[in-house]
Description:
It is a single chain. It is built from four helices and five strands. By secondary structure, it is of the alpha+beta class. α1 (4-21) crosses α4. The two termini are 35 Å apart.
Amino acid sequence: MATRLKEKYSKEVRKKLADEFGIKNPMAIPKVEKVVLNMGVGEAIQNIKVLDNAVDELATITGQKPVVTKAKKSIASFKLREGQSIGARVTLRGEKMYEFLDRLINVALPRVRDFRGVPTKSFDGRGNYTLGIRDHLIFPEVDPVKVDKSRGMNITIVTTAKNDEQARFLLRELGMPFGR
Length: 180
């Protein structure tokens, strides 16, 4: 069974995108390609168990096992060595991607305190959108009793849009609450 957001995209949003931007070729209509979640854990330099907790929480949120990311180069002032584990990353595609986006837009973002919409300036110029979240406890899957510390994460939504205008229209039609 297809997710709600995928059905909405295929039945409504594709037609609106083609009409709005005059796209004749159905393969050229912008779509969401993947969603990448990245959680940097700076405290993992002193205590590696913190990283294990972050990996477990990210796996709970996404339903997929994260990849542990390592430092690319040493930075002496941060006491960081090359190859040291410092974060976790998950790339979602297909059904899991649409399911996660649906939960993000309809459940998690409204739980943010003093929420007035996500910023519209976070596009990169090529149609990709990056959203920073300060507290991962907005996701209902995470049990706040078991969490030792609240962590932030970056969520990047990669689209096949040619420019930011098309990507903004696509995400707005999918239900992304743009505000400020």
